Amino acid sequence: MFQPAPLWDRVSFCRGPTCYAACRPPRCIARAEFGSSRQTAKRGKRQLDGQSDKGSARQDRKGAGGSNREMEALVGQLTRQKTASGIAEAVARLRDGGHLRKVHEYTSVVVTWCRAQCWHEACEVLREMRSLNLKPKPVAYNNAMNACLKAKEWETALGLMGEMKLSSSVPDVFSYSAAIGACGRVGQWLGALSLLGDMQDQELAPDIWTYNAAVIACEKGSQWEWALKLVARMRQADLEPDDITYRAACRAFERGEQQLRELRLRVTNSLAKAIDLRSAEGVEQQKAMPVKAPFADCSLHFCIFQLDEQGLGGWSLEAGGKNGRWDTLLLGLLQCLMMDGQWLQNVCASAFVGPDAIHVSGDVQGLVMRSLGQGSDGKDFYQPATVKAWEETLWSARGQDSKGLSWQTATEQPESKYEARATLLTRLDEMLEQLPADGGARVLAFAASGDTTYDELKARGVGRQPYKGRLFVLLGGAHGFDGDDDRDGGAFFDAVLGRFAARFGPTSVARVNLCEPGAPKSKGKAAVFPLSKVAGFVSVEHARGALASAVSGIQATGEGS
């Protein structure tokens, strides 16, 4: 009996064409086991097609894997670039390989440009993303805004924040911090506070960096009240203000105080003009009478020298110490004259600052210590002679001569320090020429490189007839005369002393050092006293009568005794 072979044997056996007829089973069996030949052909075709599809899918996955690895390699090369040219070449390779299509790929490009501080290129990539209907992520905007802030492109950073709000990209805390910082840089303190309010509407908690940026914005806008409120709000949010916060708040207070000072000066000057209004005849008489120079009849004359090209132009009421060190000079002038009660009489002080000069005497006390009214006892009370009042008085009267105050200003700004020095020495010559021709004088020049000490000079003058003539006390300006500013080997100091030696004789000039020979030194150098301290010391010595002995010691030194 015929036994059919298993299916797998028959399929393999019947594939051989030479044995097909001998091994062919009966028709009924063939139909039952294999079906019709047409069905068999269709089934075989479907099997072959299925194998082909699976193979193609495997090939596609294999090709995609290779493409991803290529993209990752190119992105890695991109992120390692640090120069603009290197980044541009890496981006070009990404484009050529067709790997710059998705949001995360563009984000890598934006971040890389920002790390290289190329804010313009980063913004161009963001524009390209929007033109392709790709929505940039917040990290891309944050990096771009940070790059704009570092490049001082404040308006561009604010523009990016506006684009984030219009798009579906939701700003986060970093976005708002950057935008608020940009508002502060351009003086838009209202915009900074508005953005801070938007954060609260979106239930975003500002961090200390956000608050600091807002406080700085208020400081730039002189909004000290809002700065104070922000500091209080930080504490309510359990955030401890840091050094940046306090410094910005202090600057805001200073700016607010400055505005009040300027307003008060305008009001005070207007009232003073209204009170001092004179008739036309009186004004003409005043014009006809020249103002007497403050140094005409003084017995003690302080002379302060500051070699500065800007002169009076470098003085600003807002930041006197930052422009030409005028805070130091003005304080020195005040210490030369001020005393409790009535200021020193027959004492004057001159500040030669580059091409300009200012001369004051004790009579200027009436301008500084104005009457503010009467107390319950009927006595007048006056404005205290504080440093601020002194500075404001001179500021409001700058360029206007009055009793106890005289100004000398250059018509043109000197082009160099050498030209400013020549003008300063000319001013000094003009002052010396106004002195009586037959009048003598003694000169005390205080400097760390003095030939003798002040105490030695006083000891030489003991028992001698007190000197009753004119005395000049020469002082350097801020760090002047052997300070940090004297880097010319003392040439400027020698030029100043040379004018006095030529006018009054070499034996009338003494270089004096306040330090004793055995005084302790700091870093190998003798102490250099600030201008105001030396001026105050000499004025006290003059008031108590001890300065006369030192002046007599000058004559004793000249006589060799």
TrEMBL record:
InterPro entries linked to this entry: PPR_rpt (IPR002885), TPR-like_helical_dom_sf (IPR011990)
UniProt biased composition (Basic and acidic residues): 46-63
Region (Disordered): 35-69
PPR repeats by residue range: 102-136, 137-171, 172-206, 207-241
Pfam families cross-referenced by the UniProt entry: PPR, PPR_2, PPR_3
Keyword vocabulary terms for this entry: Repeat
PROSITE patterns: PPR
Superkingdom classification of source: Eukaryota
Identification of the protein by name: Pentacotripeptide-repeat region of PRORP domain-containing protein
Organism per entry: Polarella glacialis (Dinoflagellate)
